Amino acid sequence: MGLHIGVLALQGDVREHLRALARLDCRASAVKRPAEVAACDGLIIPGGESTAIGKLAERFGLGEAITDLHRRGRPVYGTCAGMILLAREIRDSDQWRLGLLRARVARNAFGRQVDSFEADLPVEGIPGPPVRAVFIRAPYVEQAEEGVDVLATWQDRIVMVRQGTLLASAFHPELTSDDRVHQYFLDLCRAAAERTP
Per the structure, how many domains does the chain have? Predict the structure, then answer.
């Protein structure tokens, strides 16, 4: 059957991620319930409003399901708001979060919606030309602890990291036609599935 990737469908860029995964011939679906999360080989937490996604995740008991998925060795990728929700610590905020990524994240660190921008980023582990990155009210990693690998920076700020099977980016790869970041995540999922069938 191949890999089945879920996109957490509480709020945010769900359709855009599904379209990117479809271009890679990946079986993907929007997931909203704990049982749906549990059935995935990997999960994407999309960009959007981190407080709204967090409140809904808490209300529907999804935090435990996502944590269990991670505990079973299945990769989880958070983009923008998803990076915030993965973080162990959020600067100046006590909002709900999963706390799986050993890092402190700053919210809206590049300014407001009107300050959105695009940049070409070299990404560790992704060959070829730089990745086109779209930043929209983006966070960044202020502090990464041991075991968190920095994959990309922008103006000396950490904007993409990996911690084992956790992946997080401050930018939105789903908003471009370059699918290499999604392919990188799928490669993580495939390797994890082979290790833990």
Answer: 1
**Catalytic annotation on 80?**
yes
Instruction: Quote the distance between the C-alpha of residue 189 and its chain's center.
Output: 13
User: What percent of the chain clears pLDDT 90, i.e. is strictly above it?
Assistant: 87
What residues make up the domain containing 53?
A: 4-195
Query: 17, 26, 36, 172: which is the annotated catalytic residue?
Result: 172
Query: What predicted TM-score, i.e. pTM, was given to this entire model?
Result: 0.95
pLDDT tens-digit readout, 4-31: 999 999 999 999 999 999 999 999 999 9
pLDDT at residue 114 above 70?
no
Sign of CA dihedral 61, 52, 135, 17: positive
Residue 179 has pLDDT above 60, yes or no: yes
Residue 26 designated active-site: no
CATH no. for residue 87?
3.40.50.880
Catalytic residue selected from 26, 40, 80, 189: 80
CA angle 76, 24, 181 (to 5 degrees): 50
Q: Is 172 a catalytic residue?
A: yes
Which of the residues 36, 174, 182, 189 is marked catalytic? 174
